[in-house]
Specification:
The protein is 16% helix and 11% strand. It is α+β, with helices and mostly antiparallel strands. Strand 1 and strand 2 form a beta hairpin.
């Protein structure tokens, strides 16, 4: 989870999950709050099209500095 406040003062929360196994396809159950959901190769994401919070979380996971809970 990553919290931040935008320059306009709007709070933003990002949720990030890592799993070793998954069955089925992810589904967007909150289309009014989330434009889409799906699988992506984190190394192939276009930085110009990726939110700061998402880039920060992905880089932390990829370089091993993310905090994880079991």
């Amino acid at each position: 989870m990553l919290n931040k406040v935008t320059e306009a003062g709007v709070p933003v929360v990002g949720w990030y999950f890592h799993t070793r196994r998954w069955a089925g396809e992810p589904r967007n159950r909150e289309p009014g709050r989330c434009s889409e959901i799906g699988w992506a190769d984190p190394r192939a994401l276009d930085p110009a099209l990726t939110e700061d919070t998402d880039r920060t979380a992905l880089h932390a996971w990829l370089d091993g500095t993310a905090t994880t809970f079991n």
